[in-house]
Amino acid sequence: MFTIGHATILLVDDDSEQVGLLTIFLNRLGFSTATACDGREALEQLLRCYALPSLILLDLKMPRMNGWEFLERKRNHPELAPIPVVVITGHRADAPKNIPALSKPVNLRNLALAANFYCSNGSLKIATKQIIDRSEIIREPYFEEK
User: Fold this and answer.
1) Distance separating alpha carbons of residues 13 and 60, to the nearest angstrom
2) Cα–Cα dist 41/58, whole Å
3) Does some domain include residue 97?
């Protein structure tokens, strides 16, 4: 689940392949990660954990509870409301206007910058640059930078 002492990022997406690749990338940058396959599972995890994540990466289109409903419920919960969210979507125009969004396919450099910004751990910035500059990351076709 969520770890104390490390910045943790919760990935909420029903695309298990994307979640797996983003998890590997974020772990290599030094972040802890937790995952949920939809908004309902994410809320359940958040409400029963003792250490909240530093950031939530959220897909909008998911079964059971979509990203929009998750955002509404999160916003109405006093302990969860302050957790920053970055939406990851295939249709950026559909993303909420007041929430940062990354387009699919995810640009890894932008993901690393967002994670560092919201998790505000200065020591991760050096590691991020080193990992992105070297070709140690898994290069999948939909992750390639344009």
Assistant:
1) 8
2) 12
3) yes
Distance CA 20, CA 34 (A): 11
Give the total number of structural domains in the chain.
Answer: 1
Range of the domain at 82: 8-140
Q: How confident is the model at residue 86 (pLDDT cuts 50, 70, 90)?
A: very high
Spatial distance between the Cα atoms of 127 and 137, rounded to a whole number of angstroms: 12
User: Could you count the other beta carbons within 10 Å of the beta carbon of residue 133?
Assistant: 8
Whether 128 is covered by a domain: the verdict is yes
In a domain, 12, yes or no: yes
End-to-end CA distance of the chain: 33
Q: How do residues 104-123 score in pLDDT, each as one tens digit?
A: 889 999 999 999 988 875 44
Q: 78 or 90: whose pLDDT is higher?
A: 78
This prediction has a pTM of: 0.80
Whole-number Å distance between alpha carbons of 114 and 11? 13
CATH code, domain with 69: 3.40.50.2300
**What are the backbone dihedrals phi and psi of residue 83, each rounded to the nearest 5 degrees, phi first?**
-70, 125
Kindly report the average pLDDT of the chain as a whole number.
81
Give pLDDT, residue 140.
35
22 assigned to some structural domain: yes
